[in-house]
Here is the input.
Amino acid sequence: MHGTDIHELLGENDSTVPADAVFVKNPGLSVGVLTADCIPLILADPVQKTVCVVHAGRKGVFLNIVE
Here is the structure.
């Protein structure tokens, strides 16, 4: 999407939500990120049992998607 849209995935029906980053708190769900020349980031918090994938493109990086 090349922006800063972040979405929490709650179940399998959310699998095609357009966003620049998605996170899950459910260990049973899988997440992924598609990129071409952008940077894919995978972040994990083992204490909170949360995983986030980020599509870090030029515009999103300038808009602080990583922070």
In short: The helical segments are 58-62. The CA atoms of residues 2 and 59 lie 6 Å apart. The beta strands are 6-8, 21-24, 39-45, 50-56.
